[in-house]
Structures are given as structure tokens and as C-alpha cells.
Amino acid sequence: MLQPLYHKPAAAEYYALWNPLTHACATVPGPAGGGGRSFGVIGGYAHPETRRFHLLHSSCEAVPGRDDLMAPVTFRILRVGGDATWRELPFPPLHDKDNTSIFMRSDRARDRHVSVHGNLHWLVQSGATGTVALLVFDTARDKFRVMAAPERRPGLRLETARIVLWSGKLCVLALASKASSAAGTMEMWVLDVDDYGSDSDPAGASWRLRRRIRMVRLDGADLSPAFMAATTVEVVEGVEEGEEIFLRLGDRIDAYNLREDAWRKVSVAKHASLLMHRVSVLRPEMSFGEAARVLVPRTGLLGSLYHCCFREGHEGY
Question: Is the model's pTM score more than 0.85?
């Protein structure tokens, strides 16, 4: 769990980390300014060999005329529990010589990374051509690369596509074009492990169209706008329900059951949050190193219980 502290207009002075499995916590400083407008932490992971936790941060610039996009200009990485120094990473190689930038969604709630095969993944857009691709970060080598997204006609649009994890595989969910014969449906593209591509062949990833899903609920409601605006899109597998796709928009949750080929509305409390449980990056052996602090229980006003994560020389959070 990651929580920014001391919000400034475009940055957090500190980040609070908490491992709910071990109750270990830590507070770490954000990176120094410069290199564009700060965007914030875009990913976190335990190193595959050392199990030390790392944070990945992006500083970005605004995209003229597009409030929904940001252009990364600097990527930095922090080894939690080290010397608190954010190390700048080389920018991912862009294989189109006319392309000098990539765009990411400015809303981080809709741009969560997907972790699989030891890598972190985001959907991004070419700044020159508008082509959608995947930005891949190799957590073992601290290295970025760009990988091809599913090919279709017309091409994918960043605002109508999401990347999710399905049965341990990368999956892209994308609304079909309104001008196509499949209008009103959502395509489910899956990438098999053996077709993951490589640094030398970024276009070698082979995507398979698994199915088309009708975006209309049984009561006639069109869920396409909800998919585009949803703060959470996840694929999960329940013991009884089987595989389901969840869309969360405000107080509304819609779920599509792949086995029954039908949408249903999920009832939740008005202010409830949607948290999908799967294998966590925060394994018990994951370490915050010397940054680890004790999570101290305290009693607040009216007997409420809360916990403080202490940072040396400061009050707890």
C-alpha cells in the first residue's frame, strides 16, 4: 500500500509504504524537482532477486490541448531502505525515428501498471503518430522497452482501451470502433507467454483475440461510457462465479461473467472501495531495508484506533 504525504501542487514530499502481510511500514522522500512537472509514483515492486522494495517515479510535462494525457520526460527509481537517492533511468528507446515522446494517461487511477513475467506494463501512445503501444519495465535489469499492442483496423485508442491481468497473462480490453461491424462490443486480446517479444524484436508480441463482449446490460444500459470513465477495470476469477470483468465508476460496479456471457450489477455500500485480491507484490519476504519502521497502534478521539508509522526524528503518520 502506498500513500503520498504532505501534498504540494504537483508532488508529495514523502511516501508512506505499508506491507499488510508483515505490518512493516516505511516513509521515503519524493524525488527532487526538475525535469518536468512531477507526476508521481507510477509503480512499485519487490526486486526479483533481492526482494528489496523499489518505487518507480515519472516526471512529466502537459500535452497541449489534452488534459487527459501527460508526456513523461524523466523516469527515476528508488531502492527503499538504501541511501534515499532517486536514480534517473534511461528513457525507453523509441523505434520510430520520427517519434521523440510518448504519452501516458494523466489520471493515475485509470493508468495502474500490470505486473507479469517480472515486468511492469502500461498502455502508452506515440507522441508523433498516436499509435498505442505497451511500455514495459524490466524489474531485474532496470530497463524500459516499448512493445507492440494488438493490431486491428482501425487502431487502438488510449481512451477506449485498458490493460489488465487475466489468468496470469497480459490482456488488453478495447472498445470496438463505432464505424466497425463490431460496434457496441469490447474486444478481449490476450498475449501468450511464448509470444512475449524481445528487445531486438519489439513487434514480435503476438496477440490473440479471445472474444468480443457485448457492452449492453440485460436492462438495456450501454456500458461503453462506463468502461471509458471507470476508475477500476479488473479481471478476476471467483470460486463459484468463474472469470469476471469488473468495471467500477463512482458508486456503481458492473460485472461481466465470461462463463454466462452476461453483465450484472453489483451492489455495494455507497462509499465502499473496490480492491481486487490476487497474489500481491508485497510478499512476506519483501524488505523495506533500513527504512522499515514499527507500526504503532494509538487511540484517538472518541476511542478510535489508528496506527502511526514513525520516521526518525519526526512524528508518526
Answer: no
